[in-house]
Amino acid sequence: xxxxxxxxxxxxxxxxxxxxxxxxxxxxxxxxxxxxxxxxxxxxxxxxxxxxxxxxxxxxxxxxxxxxxxxxxxxxxxxxxxxxxxxxxxxxxxxxxxxxxxxxxxxxxxxxxxxxxxxxxxxxxxxxxxxxxxxxxxxxxxxx
Length: 144
Hints:
alpha/beta; single chain; 6-stranded parallel sheet; Rossmann fold
């Protein structure tokens, strides 16, 4: 599988490392050269310095051949724009993006994009831990 990742922060480098460890062909784009230092020394994938909203930069990573496009920069706007470019201009089959803002995440989910929203995911996990750990929610319900 050919994977393109925009953003080589904590999530991007982890995905790039995991996918290459599984034998997939990976290209990673980031605007900061220092971000690539997170990758393993023997990283077999391609690293591209640039922004994920520049079509020429995306082409240099062979987006036209990508099976999966993942946008995980720290900027919602960059992730949204690059995902739409991947989907609408380059017709990548699987496009996944991270959006921190829950309202915007729902809007783009409604447009058919696969959106991961860490804000709602983490909030949900914490609520679950508080409400359902040790049976506190079920205990509170039984007293009602």
